Amino acid sequence: EADVGPLPEYVEFKDADALIIHSNNTIETKRDVFGVQPITSEHQLYVRNNVTPPDESIVADREAWEVSIEGVANPGSVSVGDLKRMGVETVAMVLQCSGNGRAFFEHETSGTQWQTGAAGCVMWTGVPLRTVVENMGGVVDGAQFVTGTGGEEIPEGLNEADVIVERSVPLDALDNILLAWDMNGEPISLAHGGPLRMIVPGFTGVNNVKYIKRVAMTEVETDALIQRQRYRLVPLGESGSPEYPSVWQMEVKSWITGPLEAAASGMHQITGLAFGGVNAVDGVEVSLDDGETWEAAEFVGPDLGRYAWRPFVLAKDLAPGSYRIVSRATDSEGNQQPEAPEPNQSGYNHNGWRAPGVDVTIS
Ligand code: MSS
Asked: Of 330, 251, 344, 341, which Cα lies nearest the Cα of 297?
């Protein structure tokens, strides 16, 4: 897809050359930009907003931003300043849009035709939600979900439940959730959810609610449209409803980051990225012949934990010819990427190894 124009104002700080601008609210990282970076720079990280982000003024006084904590014995509002005194943890995590790889499905999908770049690996610093919940007397009986609400203004005349970014995840995610104020060691920009964002490691992008203004331990899932109908794995031709699984935990995935097209014969470092989603990634193989034969690749750089991705490399002396290069990762539970995933109507969670392959001509 062609670039549609200059960077919108709220992401002007980003590196335009590294990005594919699908629209003001959907901006993808170019595939060759990732290389073997363990952490994605904020200047290159993709952006996805379902609605217009709040005004920049919400990040003017970060410490004063308040989040309401409900579904605990002693509910109430807590400021970012208070949260910073309660506890601190850092997690490196793949942030990946549920629709990343949508373009690789064979059926027609509406929605942004993301390829590999609606993902990045970033570090979040904040307080564990479990600590906040303990401080407020613990979870109320009967709660089964953690429901987070985004701080966007609902435009007048629109039905709140149709627009609001409010997501519920299973309560057992509580142990890992952070209420984060820093990304990659800096205060989270407005584009990525500052002053405060709910981080659910191992879960797809949409579950990581930006500008978090309310966190509730709830008995039922929210009936906001974004939960009830959208972001569900729906069979082809059906429409979304709570009877179908929600897009929550991410699965094992990988892709090649270079070389991507033509190159001269001789030694090459074939590079890529692999992650396990909700599990750690355990290994990755590369094939130069579209999956006929496979060779194990080596991870490069530090292991930043279960939720991070691991760059990988396979050193190869390549003779002139045509190669179809693909990669296939396995997670710590022994799950391997499928050749192609089961299709779903909206094209979520693509983690097949075949379609993202690259054709490289060596001369
Ligand atoms: N949050 C809020 N508040 N709002 C919105 O819109 N979106 C989602 C998440 N969160 C939103 C939120 C999505 S959908 C995604 S991907 C993510 O976010 C992204 O991120 P960044 O930072 O990258 O932009 Mo798909 O699944």
From this structure: 330
